[in-house]
Amino acid sequence: MKAGELSPAQIKVAAAGGVGSLALAAALAISGVWEGHSLKPYRDPIGVWTVCGGETHVPMRTYTREECEAIDRRRMTARLAEVRAATPGIERHELQWAAHASLANNVGMANYKISRTRRLYLQGRYSAACDAIASWRLAGGKVWQGLVLRRTGDAARLGEIELCKKGLPK
Hints:
InterPro entries: Bacteriophage_GH24, Endolysin_T4_type, Glyco_hydro_24, Lysozyme-like_dom_sf, Lysozyme_dom_sf. One of its GO terms (molecular function) is lysozyme activity. The protein is mainly alpha-helical. It has helices spanning about 10-15, 20-35, 65-85, 95-105, 110-115, 115-120, 125-130, 145-150, 160-165, and strands spanning about 40-45, 50, 140, 140-145. The chain has one domain (about 15-165): Lysozyme. The strands form two sheets. A two-stranded antiparallel ribbon has the order 1-2. It has a two-stranded antiparallel sheet with strand order 3-4. It is globular. Mean pLDDT is about 90; it is low at about 10-20.
């Protein structure tokens, strides 16, 4: 099992929590694998102050692990709701929903709303929508290997594209 994948037991617990619980668990898992966690603020590769699991819109101070977990959960819950509102029907495909929310969390909702990923999903081209996640590999006009890996994954960690494709309708 790669980091970022949910175990069968985690899937069962998340699914029992109701609609969106699996998406939230998967989105937090995949985002956490790639964002990491810092209790102290730091500047990301393009200079944006960041804390916890990639949060940029809270006071930049030192947080406890519990505070960061709550911040990350609130942020991802909000992102899932925003993606659902912008992408009607995505909630029927919870792992795609999670991958789209992770992408939107990383690139911002404004960028997600105009993305090829979203557009292809709305056209019913689900696999192509997953593949389009790969185009989001730039930050500050430069290709970042960390973003490439976040999208595609590596031998040990699940990427957003792989998560997205696990959620494809049969």
